[in-house]
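FIELD: query
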Amino acid sequence: MKHRVTGRKFSRKKGPREAMIKTLLGSIIVRERVTTTEAKAKEAKPKIDRLITKAKKMKADPAKSTAVIRDLRKHLPLPAVKKLSGEFLDRFRARQSGYTRITKLEQRKSDGARMAVIEFV
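FIELD: result
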């Protein structure tokens, strides 16, 4: 049975899957717009929204900032953490949630995979 089991495996074991997601999240933050498969975009969207919310809480309570930065480093590369703790906090200050959007594209010609663009609103 598959009760309460969430997430996609992407035909990878745990370590490579987490590394792929970490790299994808870092690329989205640094480039602000990434073309990827629809499944990867749908997997990354809630994670990136949670990370931005966590960074906003860090700005609200500076006493917890070192712990939050340490937690962000587990999920993101260093350039992404710097950008997230800097310009993104000012950009999304008034927004409660929904920082990213997924736009579907045509299928990829080589293997027919569904493609999508994930970008910041």
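FIELD: remark
DSSP finds five helices and three strands in the chain.
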